Amino acid sequence: MSGNPKLHYINGRGRMEPIRWLLAAAGVEFEESYLEKKEDLTKLQKNGSLLFQQVPMVEIDGMKLVQTRAIANYIAIKYNLYGKDLKERALIDMYVEGMFDLNELLMGYGYQPADKKDQHFTNMMDKTKNRYFPAFEKVLKDHGKDFLVGNQLSRADVQLLEIILMAEEFKPDILAKFPLLQSFKARISNIPTIKKFLQPGSQRKPPVREEEVPKVMKIFY
Amino acid sequence: MAGKPKLHYTKGRGKMESIRWLLAAAGVEFEEEFIETKEDLEKLRSDGVLLFQQVPMVEIDGMRMVQTRAILSYIAAKYNLYGKDLKERAWIDMYVEGTTDLMGMIMYLPFQPADVKEKNLALITERATTRYFPVYEKALKDHGQDYLVGNKLSWADVHLLEAILMAEECKPDVLSAFPVLQAFKGRISNIPTIKKFLQPGSQRKPPTDEKFVAVVRKIFNI
C-alpha cells in the first residue's frame, strides 16, 4: 500500500483533469481507479465513499475528498501553489474560477447532443477568444512577469496552460492574437514536472472520443 | 463611504445572495449599487471593471473581485469563517460545494417554463432530502457539536442555513425528516448578526417573482 493519492473517476478528462494537472505539476505521484460501468459507481455510492454520491473523489491524507474545487484547493495549499497571502489567493481564485467556467465549456463539447454541438462550439470559441484569453493576456501584460500571480508558479498558471492546450485542440491558431499567452505557454510547458506530464505515457488523458460518450452516459445516468 | 465593501448586482438574490449572507454573518456593513437596466451592465463592462464581463463584482480592500466563490473564499478567510487548518478548510469546502449545487438548482427555478419548473421542483426536493440534507444531518449527529466544522461558526454553517431557508421556500416541510437540522436552523438563526439579517429591513433579498424574472432577462439578455 502506498501513501499516494488515489483518484476515482472515469478514464477520461471530465472534471478530474484539472486535479491530475495540479498533482503532476506539484510532482506528486498518484494512482487511479477507473469507473468503467455503472456498477463501479454504485459500489462507491453504497460503501459510503462519496459524500454527495458523486465523483471526482480523491483519497488523500486519510480523507475521501469530493467536489472538484475542494480537492483542487486542498492540493494547491498543500503543495504551495496557492500564493503567499490572502490577496494573492484572491487573485488566483478569480482567475481559476474563470478557467473552471471555460473548462466546463471546452470539456462539455464532446458530450453535447448532435443538434446542439454547433451552437456550443460557437459559444465556447467566442468566450475563449473574447472573454477569457484577453483577460489573462492583459494580466500578464500589466505586470510583465512570468507567472500570473506573485511572480511564482501557482495553480492559476497550471490551469491556464491546461485550458490553452484544450482550446488549441479545437482551434490550433487560437493564440494567434495573444503573444504573451504564446510565450507563457512555452515557458510553463518547460517546467520539468509539467514537461513530463505533457509527454506520451503520462497520466494526462486524451479528449473524449464520440464513440466513448454513450459508455460514459451509461455510468452516470 | 470608503472602506465598506460595495456590491454590484441586480436587486435580486441570484449569485450575490450568498455573499450578502456571509458579510452579514460576519457583521460587516456593505453598500450596494444595483444594476437596473442593460445599460447599467454595459457601463460596468465598458468601464473595464469586470474581469470576465460578469457580475457579481465586489469592491473590497482595493480590489474589484469577481467570481462568486473567489469573493466568498476571501470574505470567509478574512473574517475567520474558514476553519483553523487545511483539513478543516477541506471539509468546509466540501460542504459549501454541496449547498452551492443545491442552491444553484433552486436559483434557476423562476426562469424555467412551467412544465420544466414542476419537474425540477420535484428534483430539488429529491436531491435536498436524499443527497444533501442527509449529509449535513449525519455530520452534525456524528460529532454532536453545534457547528458543522471545528466546533466553531464557519462559512459552511451560514451557507447551510441559507440553503435550508431557500429549500423551505420551495417546500415548507422539507426538513421534516431531519431533526438535527431543525435544531441547527433554530440555533444558527439566533446568532445576533444572522438574526438581524433575517429581520425585515435588512439587505437580504426576497425570492425572485415573475416580474423580476422579466427584468433580469432584459439586463442579461437571457
What would you note in describing this structure?
Chain A is an alpha+beta fold and 221 residues long. Chain A has 2 domains: 6-79 and 198-220, Glutaredoxin (3-Layer(aba) Sandwich); 86-190, Glutathione S-transferase Yfyf (Class Pi), Chain A, domain 2 (Up-down Bundle), CATH 1.20.1050.10. Chain A is 56% helix and 7% strand. Chain A has 9 helices and 4 strands, in the order βαβαββααααααα. Chain A has a 4-stranded mixed beta sheet with strand order 2-1-3-4, covered by helices on one side. In chain A, a hairpin with a 2-residue loop joins strand 3 and strand 4 (63-66). The model of chain A has no long low-confidence stretch (mean pLDDT 97). Chain B has 222 residues and is α+β, with helices and mostly antiparallel strands. Chain B folds into 2 domains: 6-79 and 198-212, Glutaredoxin (3-Layer(aba) Sandwich); 86-191, Glutathione S-transferase Yfyf (Class Pi), Chain A, domain 2, CATH 1.20.1050. Chain B contains 9 helices and 4 strands, in the order E-H-E-H-E-E-H-H-H-H-H-H-H. Chain B has helices spanning 17-25, 38-46, 68-78, 86-108, 114-143, 155-170, 179-189, 192-197, 210-220, and strands at residues 6-9, 31-34, 57-60, 63-66. In chain B, strands 2-1-3-4 form a 4-stranded mixed beta sheet, covered by helices on one side. In chain B, helix 1 runs parallel beside helix 3 (68-78) and helix 4 (86-108) packs parallel to helix 6 (155-170). The longest helix of chain B is centred in the middle third of the chain and has 30 residues, at 114-143. Chain B starts with 5 loop residues before the first strand and ends with a helix. The model of chain B has no long low-confidence stretch (mean pLDDT 97). The A-B interface holds A 51-53, 61, 63, 65-70, 73-74, 77-78, 86-87, 89-91, 93-94, 96-98, 101, 131-132, 135 and B 51-53, 61, 63, 65-70, 73-74, 77-78, 86-87, 89-90, 93-94, 97-98, 101, 131-132, 135. Chain A: Pfam families: GST_C_3 (PF14497), GST_N (PF02798). Chain A: Residues 3-83 form the GST N-terminal domain. Chain A: Its EC number is 2.5.1.18. Chain A: Residues 85-208 form the GST C-terminal domain. Chain A: InterPro entries: Glutathione-S-Trfase_C-like (IPR010987), Glutathione-S-Trfase_C_sf (IPR036282), Glutathione_S-Trfase (IPR040079), Glutathione_S-Trfase_N (IPR004045), GST_alpha (IPR003080), GST_C (IPR004046), GST_superfamily (IPR050213), Thioredoxin-like_sf (IPR036249). Chain B: Residues 85-208 form the GST C-terminal domain.
